[in-house]
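Q: I'm building a small set of examples for a reading group on sequence design. Run inverse folding on the following structure and report the sequence directly after it, with nothing in between.
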């Protein structure tokens, strides 16, 4: 079977649908310019730093497949030369990883929420849905203050 070798730069993790982190790489063209970005559920190579340039082997005619193990596994061959790009990718990677961790913690904390709270939230949603936008905006801080125990 014939393979195609592609050079890609790892641009970090991205949050998809507010929950799942995916690993993104951008193709490097023959002229050294960045091309299309591709996401994957698993990293091409675990522990790869943002900005690492990898050589990725793919079966010819199957651009969505990548060899992950063995002699054809992706390997780091260089580092991206533009420090501004790498800094931007790292900042986005860190922000998305923190957002994913925060969302995961919130889901875990809310998993044991009693049904009575869900019912109360549904009642509030129903009442708010009949109000005009301006009234909703004015009422929201009052509801929040009452829930948190302050009448201000």
């Amino acid at each position: 079977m014939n393979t195609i070798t592609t050079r890609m730069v790892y641009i970090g993790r991205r949050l998809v649908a507010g929950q799942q982190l995916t690993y993104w790489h951008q193709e490097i063209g023959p002229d050294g310019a960045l091309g299309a970005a591709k996401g994957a559920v698993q990293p091409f190579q675990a522990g790869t730093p943002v900005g690492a340039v990898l050589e990725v082997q793919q079966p010819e005619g199957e651009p969505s497949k990548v060899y992950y193990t063995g002699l054809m596994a992706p390997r780091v061959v260089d580092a991206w030369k533009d420090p501004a790009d790498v800094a931007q990718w790292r900042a986005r990677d860190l922000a998305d990883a923190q957002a994913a961790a925060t969302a995961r913690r919130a889901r875990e904390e809310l998993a044991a929420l009693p049904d009575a709270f869900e019912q109360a939230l549904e009642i509030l949603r129903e009442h708010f849905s009949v109000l005009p936008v301006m009234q909703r905006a004015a009422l929201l801080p009052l509801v929040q203050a009452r829930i948190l125990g302050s009448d201000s």
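The radius of gyration is 23 Å.
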